[in-house]
Amino acid sequence: MNATRTRPKRLVHKAAPQLKVLYVCTEVYPWLKTGGLADVSAALPPALRLAGLDVRVLVPAFPALAQAASVCGAPIALPPGTADGPGPRADTAGTAAPWLQPANWHNLTTADASTCTPQVYLLHAPGLLDQPGNPYTDASGQPWPDSARRFAWLGWAAARLGTGLDATWQPDVVHGHDWHTGLSAAYLHALAERGQRVPATVFTIHNLAYQGIFGPEVMAPMGLPASQFGLRGLEFHGNVSFMKAGLQYSQALTTVSPTYASEITQPEQGHGLDGLLRERQAQLHGILNGVDGAVWDPQADALAPHAYSASNLAGKAVAKAALQIDMGLQADPAALLFVVVSRLTDQKGLHLLPQVVDELVQRGGQLAVLGEGDATIEQALRACAQRHPGRVALHKGYSEALAHRMVAGGDVIMVPSRFEPCGLTQLYGLRYGTLPLVRAVGGLADTVTDCSLENLADGSASGFVFHRLDADDLARAVRRAFALHARPADWQAVQRHAMGLRFDWARAAQAYAGLYAQLAQDVL
Question: Most buried by CB count within 10 Å: which residue of 58, 124, 266, 363?
Answer without folding.
Answer: 58
